[in-house]
């Protein structure tokens, strides 16, 4: 980078692109939100057939593995999200 009289500007004088980490935090929160949204797209409403509460519970129990996988994936993403925010608390600026 040069000034008007074509002298190079020292690297220390160049301003950082972002002064705060809020833009990076907002972007990463969006990425985590998309990941969680993609998880829920695989959950289907079971066909209960209109027989009442007993058939609904039976249909829900038949899909227990799908619900367990969602909770496990959600927990994994949540742990990564918390770790990411703890990491970003230690930053002063992002360039």
What does this structure look like?
The relative contact order is 0.16. The chain has helices at 22-40, 53-62, 64-88. It is rod-shaped, with a radius of gyration of 24 Å. It has one domain (11-88). The chain has three helices and no strands. The model has no long low-confidence stretch (mean pLDDT 82). It starts with 21 loop residues before the first helix and ends in a 7-residue tail after the last helix. Helix 1 runs antiparallel to helix 3 (64-88). The chain is mainly α.
Q: What's the short version?
A:
The protein is built from 3 helices and no strands. It is an all-alpha fold and 95 residues long.
List the helices and strands and how they pair.
Elements: H1 22-40, H2 53-62, H3 64-88
Order of helices and strands: HHH
- Tell me the overall shape: rod-shaped
Low-confidence stretches: none
What is the strand tally? 0
Mind telling me the C-alpha Rg?
Answer: 24 Å
Number of domains: 1
Major β-sheet annotation = none
Structural class: mainly alpha
Gap between N and C termini: 16 Å
Mean pLDDT: 82
Helix residue percentage: 55-70%
* Count of helix runs: 3
* Percentage of β-strand residues: under 5%
Considering the chains and any ligands shown, give keywords for the structure:
95 residues, mainly alpha, 57% helix
